[in-house]
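Replying to the earlier thread about multi-chain prediction with a worked example.

Input:
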Amino acid sequence: MVSLDDDLIQPFHLNGREIRGRLVRLGPVADAILNRHDLPPAPAALLGEALALSAMIGSALDFDGIFTFQAEGDGPANMLVCDYRGRGDLRGYVRLRRQEGEAVGASPAASLLGRGSLALTIDREGDRQRYQGLVELLGDDLPSCAEHYFQQSEQLPTLFRAVSTRGPDGAWRVGGLMLQSLPKDPDEDKAAEDWNTAQVLARTVKPQELLDQSLTAPELLYRLFHEDGVWLHDVQPLKDRCTCSADRVVSVVRRFPEEEIRNLADESGKVTVTCQFCARAYDFSAGELLGETE
Ligand SMILES: [Zn+2]
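Result:
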């Protein structure tokens, strides 16, 4: 079994029950991603929660491809996007309405997105088919919006917890828990009872426990579910990794109308395109983007 202290997903299932789960811990990965975007504290914390949810949901799909968690609303943070790719690559950004950017510092995370929708998308590698589920953003916080998604779109009872905050050293830490009832149990009464018991246990988790580095993932899971026993699966590492490249940027920008590309250029004909996810800047000449030979 891989042993890791931080930036990890710990998958598990409960002994004798058709219930699985994920515990996520993010330290340096969250700190790097959240500091990159120069965000006020509340939207940064919201992005941290979204990273935790994306890592738990994406890794539970157990597939090669991209899982995207995307929320859009009419609030001050009108777009929130996170990707989980293949074997643990995470990236994400939150977009603020410019004029409200300064006022959102003290907003509670729940009111940042406002009214809107939550879309979860699965893009399988080597498969042109995309699967997307879309629900209304309903819930007091982002984890409850994700619970609503699974109830509404997948009919899978799911519990989510996610916390994101700066530690005493000033670095961001993120923690999360996911618990999901699998539709495998033919005995519906037993499945419902199992789910109720497991939920009660999971709800006792304190935000501090999800963030506490001195409490390992197995220790926390045993603390929560020791009555039934919990089976731990292999830990998966999480990484701060974007998939952008100059080639990808060129292929996207080339789809714009010629006039728009010319408008993007500065006086010297240089076009700078910044990746929304990782904030990396790519420089091109307008001629390059228009496919002209120089
Ligand atoms: Zn990037």
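The pocket of zinc ion is lined by residues 242, 244, 275, 277-278, 280 (CB under 6 Å).

Feel free to reuse this layout for your own posts.
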